[in-house]
Amino acid sequence: MKPPNILVPQHPHWPKLSDEERSALKACITDKLKAENAVLVAHYYTDPDLQALAEESGGCVADSLEMARFGAAQEADTLVVCGVRFMGETSKILSPEKRVIMPDLGATCSLDEGCPADRFSAFCDAHPQHTVVTYANTSAEVKARSDWVVTSGIALPIVEHLTEQGEKVLWAPDRHLGRYVQRVTGAEMVLWPSSCVVHEEFKAVALKRIRRLHPQAAVLVHPESPENVIAQADVIGSTTALIKAVAEMDNKEFIVATDGGIFYKMQQTAPGKILIEAPTAGEGATCVSCAHCPWMGMNALQNLEQALDSGGNEIVLDPAIRERAVIPIRRMLDFAARREIEMKDRGNA
Ligand code: 13P
Ligand code: SF4
Question: 254-303 pLDDT, tens per residue?
Fold first, then answer.
């Protein structure tokens, strides 16, 4: 199975705002959010201005799972999702009664684009004995064809659980994360071969060199990275897990292999720590992303204000797809909730 070729956009260059322009735009957006009874939900990879505004205006900055959970728990009429399209869709799947808008509906993800629903469905048909587990970075149509949806934060325990039940797993779309999950859990898995254009760019040889220059630094790696980069990690985890590691570990320095947008939250959580970008240069480097997702970069204060103004850029889903897609997402959320209770009980015992 060969994934389709993906056209990766240039990283958008937004006109630089003066401090006055930035403050005026933020104030205007805050007023519009209030007038629309809307809540702003932003991902850790988006521009720091958006992350700050989400927090200041009573919204949230989070990983993909928490964004959807937070949105669903709000009384708001409208959710404004700053991130990529699958995040907007997941919010809509969990909150069908709310209007979900985004600054740019063209902000997709190489994993989502690399896993078109028709080809994915044929792949599932070819493996009828496998339980279909898909990563959240997929379209609503792909989720609708899945038994389970997982995020990087919950993939390991869910696949472990399925393996205990004697199930074989069809995994899509990220092959690096899939291989990592397979290695840790020992599960029998077939993998869809897509990858993230941002994490795929981290280079193992150059990372080794940087580690020699910073021998005290802890290496934090998102599991969408290549195997030889994961192999050098002190911590492998979701965006939330990596932020937690910076706050909780005693190290002063950290080499971080994920999108640089996360530095805003890491610095806010642990201001004294030194953060070093893992290298994307070196042999085989193309720098199509340079540790910053071009689709996440399509979110800015300017088009956020325009989206609120026009009321456009709304996520609209086929109700039949939504009804099917919500089942594997709920399965994941219920599993996560049960697991949290079990872990708390174990901690109290
Ligand atoms: P999280 O689920 O950790 O937020 O990651 C989403 C993502 O797109 C990683 O590249
Ligand atoms: Fe998709 Fe990678 Fe961008 Fe995350 S960083 S949204 S996985 S392309």
Answer: 999 999 999 999 999 999 999 999 998 766 555 555 789 999 999 999 99
**112 C-alpha to center of ligand 2: Å?**
9
The number of the ligand nearest the C-alpha atom of 109 reads: 2
- CATH node for 19-107+296-315: 3.40.50.10800
> Quick check: 31 and 56 in contact, CB under 8 A?
no
Which ligand 2 atom is nearest residue 293's CA?
Answer: 3
Whether pTM > 0.85 for this model: the answer is: yes
198 close to ligand 2 (CB < 6 Angstrom): yes
For 39, 57, 265, 315, 348, the CA distances from 61, given in Å and listed in that order, are 11, 11, 9, 20, 30
- CA 18 to ligand 1 center in whole angstroms: 30
Q: Which two tokens stand for residue 179?
A: 């291989």
* Spans of all domains in the chain: 19-107+296-315, 111-195, 199-277
pLDDT at res. 296? 97
Tell the CATH topology of 111-195.
Rossmann fold (3.40.50)
CATH architecture type of domain 199-277: 3-Layer(aba) Sandwich (3.40)
Residue pair 3/192 in contact (Cβ under 8 Å)? The answer is yes
User: Measured from the CA of 62, which atom of ligand 1 is nearest?
Assistant: 4
